[in-house]
Amino acid sequence: MGKAYDKFIERQQLLEKQYDDAYYEKQHNRGKLTARERIALLFDEGTFEELDAFAPPASVSFGKSTKAFGDGVITGYGKVNGRQVYAFAQDFSVLGGSLGAVHAAKIIKIQDMALKTGCPIIGLIDSGGARIQEGVQSLNGYAGIFRRNVLSSGVIPQISVIMGPAAGGAVYSPALTDFIFMSAGTSYMFVTGPDVVKQVLNESVSPEELGGASIHSTRSGVADFAFNDDENTILGVKMLLSFLPSNNIENPPFVASDDPITRIEPSLRDIVPDDPDKPYDVKEVIKLVVDHGRFFEVGENFAPNFVTGFARMGGQVVGILANQPRIMAGTLDISSSTKGARFINICDSFNIPLITFEDVPGFLPGTDQEHNAIIKHGAKLLYAYTYATVPKITVVLRKSYGGAYIVMNSKGIGGDFSFAWPTAEIAVMGPEGAIAVLYRKELAEAADPVALKKQLAQKYREDIANPYIAEEKGFIDEVIDPATTRLKVIRALQSLEKKSISIPKRKHGNIPL
Q: What are phi and psi for residue 480, nearest 5 degrees?
């Protein structure tokens, strides 16, 4: 080849020089991996194919220009655990990872490729935001990315991994994707930064306090996962991918399990306390029922009164939702309703059956909840359960009262199978509330109203709230031995393998946003 090949080698060498020791040192000093190290950790060794590595930045004004290759973002595709995935990694060490026209075009190219090939896409985000020198071109670049986020929604899994700054309009791309990961201590997200907050509100706040991983994984619920460092964050991404199909046409990956479907767990008979007001950890129930006790929780630290996550049962991926009696008695509130609805929508989009473990005394009362629209937010959960067409199975462990009974995948809104443990209590309201209404006069005249109330509450449980009445009327398919929960749920899943539902033709429903 002669000169032509020499030119090729020369260009390769120029690219390599851009990623010298100083490149790595600069990022490591910030406590972060470089974009190239992140890509290497994410993809199976030797499988990543980079695209547009030599793309130069657009011509810029404002007296600044650069000859850096790649325009601050690495894009391409490869294999993650043997499956094809597209990804982009913003490179903070090159132009601050800022988004200009070429940077945006590179991301848009692989978004289009991922969509038309039916592959997941992962964004490793570490950027100074829109490139000021390029003006409206950079803003239009974000618009193009956002549009493709929306077009890909529910078609291919989209995962955002915040590993540095994400500020201003840049945060809306992650918000449009299915899952958000954050690296603690080095990442943050906010629409307006600390300087603007100081100017407008005269309030001093650090980036971490305003939009760090701890804030978004606990208080706002924006982030689904927060890990201690880049390495563990990427390992978490790979774990999540193992539960997701490549697109909405495929089923999630089946993994044959040597955990027997017929496994009986006698300890489940003693998990729910005899005292109906005593808490227990619903995660113990989940781990005793799923394959090998492996449960990958989503949104663990946000709205912890409602547990969501992925597991396998009989090798099949399932999405699990459960009320958590240990926290707020498992009541439903604004945050938990939104969290549950979001998780249901994702599972339904990607053909993942829903398993619900129910122990809910109702919706959280109070002016704070009412004034902040618990009615509308609670309706989101109701809408999501009703609209979902994947297999839906419920196990009532203990309390199932009032509107919460309806919302938590009851048969009336389309639940396929409803099982109940002998400890289940299913009624319009809890015993104490019902007794206070039904026996107001008797309690007022009683010599010992506390003793009478306790006696009447017990009678209410036996005569009205016990699960056998619901079973006899067909609202519960079967009251089961808790020890057989795994067997019953897996057999129900197997029976629903060919479930098919036709939804009335429409452009889309009007979910109560």
A: -115, 160
Angle at 244 between CA 240 and CA 245, to 5 degrees: 150
pTM over 0.90: yes
Catalytic position from the list 87, 404, 465, 470 = 404
Residues 200 and 293 in one domain: no
> Annotated catalytic, 404?
yes
**Tokens 């978490």 found at:** 236
Confirm if 332 and 407 have CB atoms less than 8 A apart: yes
pLDDT tens-digit series, residues 188-234: 999 988 888 888 888 899 989 999 999 999 999 999 999 999 999 99
Please indicate, yes or no, whether residues 332 and 402 belong to a single structural domain of this protein. yes
Catalytic residue, from 144, 403, 414, 433: name it: 403
DSSP reduced 3-state for 477: coil
Do residues 74 and 165 share a domain?
yes
- For the question of residue 403 being annotated catalytic, the response is yes
| Catalytic-residue membership of 420 | no
**253 occurs within a structural domain:** no
Is residue 169 among the annotated active site residues?
yes
- Asked if residue 225 and residue 154 are part of one domain, the reply reads yes
Calpha distance 363→377 (Å, rounded): 11
